[in-house]
Amino acid sequence: MKINLAKSAGFCFGVKRAIKTAFAAAFSGETIEMLGDIVHNEDAVDKIKKAGIKKISLLKNGKNKTLLIRAHGAPLDIFIKARALGYKIIDATCPMVKEIHKIVVAQQTRGRNIIIVGDKEHDEVKGIMGQINHRAIVIDALENIPFAEIKKIKKACLVVQSTQNLEKVLKIAEVLKQYITDLSFFNTICNPTRTKQQEIRAMPLENDVIIVIGSRTSANTRRLYEISKSLNARTHWIQSDKEIKPSWFKGAESVGVTAGASTPDEVTKEIVEKLNNLG
């Protein structure tokens, strides 16, 4: 049984940068706190915790403490409040997410309403929304477009959560263009996401079975799974080698393997090794 590993499998640039920044902060000997998880992956989160970085739910007294901003970014009020409480800040926001922040701020100053295609409860989307003064409209699916609001808008800026499904985004953009006469569309899906999605549109057609590796909390991993599953019913989403079932590979000559942007390489290697042993 041949194992074909996607070239783009695993950590993207933004996640690598955030984790490197986190470990550097931890080894500085200072007290480091973080609102939530560094990325959406349990293995990566566990390593950060063992390095001594404390996960908190509320900002309190920040004297002699450093607040680490996660890869997904944070609303502006978090920065303002943290500094007021005495925290030093280390910003590990993905540079590509930072670009989205710059776009929405600039476009709002030009009088445009901000529309975001993304998951309403995702940390990245909340961070984007938190850069501007006025409420942004968030659209998570074609069937959930709020037409009553959209029809009132004449001038808007459309941005995208960086890990969204490109096909879905383009469909939503086409519908919005029919209602908003002056729509500036910024396709802010990041390059690593585009590369991963290109690969996962080809691999299910070239392999008998597909394995997608990543946390159940990872939005980009979920999208890889959804795309693959729509093309190949023998697609399985796992977090570790312990979830592999030999029955999945009955009669299979090839297995395609990919991993989400927040999946550590060592987890992928363990799974590939187990698949090779099965083969």
Write up what this structure looks like.
This protein has ten helices and twelve strands. The radius of gyration is 20 Å and the shape is flat. The model has no long low-confidence stretch (mean pLDDT 96). It is of the alpha/beta class and 279 residues long. The longest helix has 16 residues, at 191-206. Helix 7 (166-179) links the parallel strand 8 (155-160) and strand 9 (182-185). It has three domains: 2-10 and 191-278, 4-hydroxy-3-methylbut-2-enyl diphosphate reductase, catalytic domain (Cobalt-precorrin-4 Transmethylase, domain 1), CATH 3.40.1010; 13-94, Rossmann fold; 96-185, Cobalt-precorrin-4 Transmethylase, domain 1, CATH 3.40.1010.20.
Biggest sheet strand order reads 1-12-10-11
Largest sheet: 4 strands, parallel
> Average pLDDT across residues?
96
Total of domains: 3
Say what the CATH topology of the largest domain is.
Cobalt-precorrin-4 Transmethylase, domain 1
Helix/strand structural class: alpha/beta
Give descriptors for this structure.
alpha/beta, Cobalt-precorrin-4 Transmethylase, domain 1, Rossmann fold, 4-stranded parallel beta sheet, 279 residues, 3 domains, 10 helices, 12 strands
Summary of the model, kept short:
With 279 residues, the protein is of the alpha/beta class. It contains 10 helices and 12 strands. The N and C termini lie close together (5 Å).
